Amino acid sequence: MNVRSFLARKRQGKKISMVTCYDASFARVLNETEVDCLLVGDSLAMVIYGYPTTVHATLEMMVRHTEAVRRGAPDKMIIADMPFLSMQQGKAHAVHAAGELIRAGADAVKVEGWKGIEEEIAHLVQAGIPVMGHLGLTPQFYYAFGGFRVQGRDEASRTYILEGAGRLEALGCFGIVLECIPSGLARVVTERISIPTIGIGAGSDTDGQVLVLYDLGGVGLEKPFRFVRRYAEVGLAVKEAVDRFVEDVVEGRFPTREESFEDE
Ligand code: KIV
Ligand code: NA
């Protein structure tokens, strides 16, 4: 998968699958799956570092984790998130940040929103850096939105998303993530543009779907959002495994002779 085959998928009517990944161990697992692309999302600020929002993801964090994911998944298309405010400090800053992510192993970068950053997006595209857009519930706008809430329900928000999708396509983006918007709006956006839409909490009519790996795998124990489907309970499995380990240690059942070294 690369930017060209990604774009071709829409014409072929073949859905695109994407999951987030932040580290080399999971990247090695995902490299063996059929998933089309990996997203080093700035959600790592929350999932990996425990911050309340994604505004805490720094360029340094994004670079480190992108390098780790690339080492683990040499064969996958990797998209890395441009962190909070990296597009709002001018073209030179934006292209520097995006360049670091590409050098770290990303094939493309993803940016949230569109108003006020159109020149920067065009600059990245002209520099040969593939850019994916992200509209709807863009988590870097947490404070502006007054929390994590479904977008595109009122006319102003709907217009912002519809207009933005057209602008992002015109600026040369190769795809757009649509997050937490009504399914009907996601369908309209998907029909109006010729680049693929990747939905999360945006219904089934987008050109592809993305989920946070820790959500779909149940790594965290908290109750998932409505738009998440849990395919495994990894967190519960690890909890049970560790409790069994502790019991074995306490009871002296671990380690056995086979699990130990003897004198020659
Ligand atoms: O950071 C992230 O995980 C994302 C996806 C949810 C689209 O941006
Ligand atoms: Na993100």
TrEMBL record:
GO biological process: pantothenate biosynthetic process
Cofactor note: Binds 1 Mg(2+) ion per subunit.
Active site location: E179
Family matches, as CDD domains: KPHMT-like
Subcellular location: Cytoplasm
Cellular-component GO terms for this entry: cytoplasm
Ligand binding (Mg(2+)): D42, D81, E112
MF terms (GO), sorted A to Z: 3-methyl-2-oxobutanoate hydroxymethyltransferase activity; magnesium ion binding
Pathway(s) it belongs to: Cofactor biosynthesis; (R)-pantothenate biosynthesis; (R)-pantoate from 3-methyl-2-oxobutanoate: step 1/2
Cofactor needs: Mg(2+)
Enzyme class: transferase
Family matches, as Pfam families: Pantoate_transf (PF02548)
EC number: 2.1.2.11
Binding site for 3-methyl-2-oxobutanoate: D42, S43, D81, K110
UniProt keyword annotations, A-Z: Cytoplasm, Magnesium, Metal-binding, Pantothenate biosynthesis, Transferase
Superkingdom per UniProt: Bacteria
Stored InterPro entries: Pantoate_hydroxy_MeTrfase, Pyrv/PenolPyrv_kinase-like_dom, Pyrv_kinase-like_dom_sf
Function per UniProt: Catalyzes the reversible reaction in which hydroxymethyl group from 5,10-methylenetetrahydrofolate is transferred onto alpha-ketoisovalerate to form ketopantoate.
Family to which this protein belongs: Belongs to the PanB family.
PANTHER family, A to Z: 3-METHYL-2-OXOBUTANOATE HYDROXYMETHYLTRANSFERASE
Record's subunit section: Homodecamer; pentamer of dimers.
Name of the protein in question: 3-methyl-2-oxobutanoate hydroxymethyltransferase
Gene transcribed to yield this protein: panB
